[in-house]
Fold this protein.
Amino acid sequence: MRLVLLGAPGSGKGTQAQKLRDDKGIPQVSSGDLLRDAVARGTELGKRAKAAMDAGELVSDEIVLGLIRERLGRPDAAKGFILDGYPRNVAQAGALDKLLAELGQPIDSVVLMDVESKALFQRLTGRRSCPKCSKVFNVYSSPSKLGDRCDNHAGDEAPQLVQRADDREDVIENRLKVYESQTRPLVEHYQGRGLLKVVNADQAVDKVYADFLRAAGA
Ligand code: AMP
């Protein structure tokens, strides 16, 4: 299964991709996670990406394509993948088509996580994640059973949850604007190619997941 997840920041792409990964053993390939990892490791590429990420702007197409190419070339991606956060503009969609043609692995479907834009702000300000396993929580809608620590680990070793640096109000505003202007055109792009499925992502996580499975034919 080769899926692309589309949706605004805060629409739940990461949460749903992680559930599908855990259920079906298909790797989640998140361009945001790959970039954050490069920044945390202080690589040359991470240093080049950091300013754009801090401002909520898109990192250059060339940097992100390099990361995605390397990730999709790993053995575990040969049996499928869930692309989360890539592509993010029409040029990236073209580059992805070329890359997947080279790999002989075309996209099966594109699933749009559809949420009304006024719900996104609260989702993003409430988001917390585990620095160790990347599990995503929301203090309003899906809190950790261990409060501010990750419930995916045994009691005493449960790491303190963290808030992403770009989940600050001023940066969130810009990320949502960037989504509208650069990423939303992909909805029409994939609709035109007959690949788009739409999921109402403004429901409880498990309900969204059931709809997601159906839409993805999983
Ligand atoms: P995300 O975790 O998907 O919200 O991504 C966090 C940040 O990483 C974004 O605000 C961008 O700065 C950068 N980023 C993630 N994916 C891409 C992409 N496909 N193209 C450009 N920048 C990206």
User: Anything to note?
Assistant: The pocket of adenosine monophosphate is lined by residues 9, 31-32, 35, 52-53, 56-59, 64, 85-86, 88, 92, 166, 175 (CB under 6 Å). The two ends are 8 Å apart (CA to CA). The chain has a mean pLDDT of 95.
